[in-house]
Amino acid sequence: MVPQDRISRLAQQLGDRLQNASQAPEDIQKGVQQVVRGAFDRLELVSREDFDILMDVLQRTRSRVEALERQVANLEATVEAAAPAATPMEAEAPPVPTPEPDADTDTDTDTDQKNKPA
């Protein structure tokens, strides 16, 4: 969050300007400090250190993603060069099995001969 001394300094400046008010400057300063602190909390601010750490993480992640994209492109180029005849759809599609004739279907003529009276 925001360092405590900045909030105190801001509250002190506001208190100095409001000295002519009916309340004591210490009370005004405490009230303003609470208001300012609450406003900063609602803003969900991060410290500069946290921001810098997250920026470093983001830069490393971006460089890793770019390296992986280059690696994938190289692998795709290698695959395309190795199998130029195959289209992407043919390379991804599994082979379609062809039905083989069953041994039971060839016996239809045998069944007809068995049903004939001898």
Automatic annotation (TrEMBL):
Comp. bias intervals (Acidic residues): 101-110
Pathway: Cofactor biosynthesis; ubiquinone biosynthesis
Gene Ontology biological process terms in this record: ubiquinone biosynthetic process
Sorted UniProt keywords: Coiled coil, Cytoplasm, Ubiquinone biosynthesis
Chain intervals with Low complexity compositional bias: 81-93
Major localisation: cytoplasm
Coiled coil: 51-78
CC terms in the record's Gene Ontology section: cytosol
Family from the record: Belongs to the UbiK family.
PANTHER family in the record: UBIQUINONE BIOSYNTHESIS ACCESSORY FACTOR UBIK (PTHR38040)
Protein name: Ubiquinone biosynthesis accessory factor UbiK
Organism for this UniProt entry: Halomonas campaniensis
